[in-house]
Amino acid sequence: MPALRLVLADQLSRNVAALRGADPAQDVILMAEVMKEATYVRHHKQKIVFLFAAMREFAQGLRNDGYTVRYVKLDDEDNQGSLFGEVQRAFSDEDVDELVCTACGEYRLAQDMESWGRKLNRPVTIKGDDRFVCSLPEFRAWADERKTLRMEYFYREMRKKTGLLMDGDKPEGGEWNYDQENRKKLPKGYEPPPPPPINDSETVCEVMKLVDDRFGDHFGTLDQFRYQTTRDGALKRLDFFIEHCLPGFGDYQDAMATGEDFLNHGLISAYLNAGLLEPLEVCDAVEEAYKEGHAPLNAAEGFIRQIIGWREYVRGIYWLKMPEYKEQNALDADRPLPDFYWTGETDMHCVAEAVRNTRDHAYAHHIQRLMVTGNLALLLGVHPDAINEWYLIVYADAYEWVELPNVHGMAIWADGGVLGSKPYAASGAYINRMSNYCSSCRYNVRERTGKEACPFNYLYWDFIMRNEDKLRANHRMGMVMRNLDEKDKSEKLSLRASAREFYKRLED
Question: What is the per-residue pLDDT across 411-422, written as a single tens digit (0 to 9) for each?
Answer without folding.
Answer: 999 999 999 999
